[in-house]
Amino acid sequence: MTVLRRLLRLVGLVVAGLAGLMALLIVAYRWIDPPVTPLMLLRLPEAGTIRRTGLSLDEIAPTLPRSVIASEDNRFCLHHGIDWDAVADAIDDYEEDGRLRGASTITMQVARNLFLWPGGGFLRKGIEAPIALAIDLLWPKRRVIEVYLNVAEWGDGIYGAEAAAQAYFKKPAKSLSSREAALMAAVLPNPRRWSPANPTRYIAGRAGTIQGRIGQLGPLLDCIGR
Q: I need a labelling partner for 126 at 20 to 30 A (CA). Which of 147, 171, 177, 215 fits?
């Protein structure tokens, strides 16, 4: 019994230590760009490289964050890290057909990219949720979308808006057109399968939908400015 107690105490200390480190990093990343993410390291043996250049949000064409919000998280400016309406819909769908669909906000994706592993499952979601709430509490919305656009995977070894814009369109992220930004947003669900530069019919159509949705969002984009 003594051995079990010691083991449980050790596990508790490790968990508390990891939680404390994560809290410190969340605070630090409010101002400091994350040097690397777990996903980058996991993909490195296969990709052989990490192509990434950090930018401020002002150095990225405004149409890209708008396109990403229109594609990934329409209520980004309204929720506090978790879109509970989307979560409720996902639970209803799971109860009806047994399929677990995504209800991740951009903030939750930032939490996953910075601290967790790829893939789904309830365990990761359970850890991801409080991290997302902490990020939303401590960071302004512009910082959340800025970090997302700098760490998101956009292809094999390609991370962030600048590396993606250069790889696919041979131009800096600041010069992306509205169509190019929409194409980049359209491939985010599976960037290793789809290419913004060579869109399938599905991706081309999805990009058109994203462009149309931006105009419909109106004040729902106010939190990112410009």
A: 147
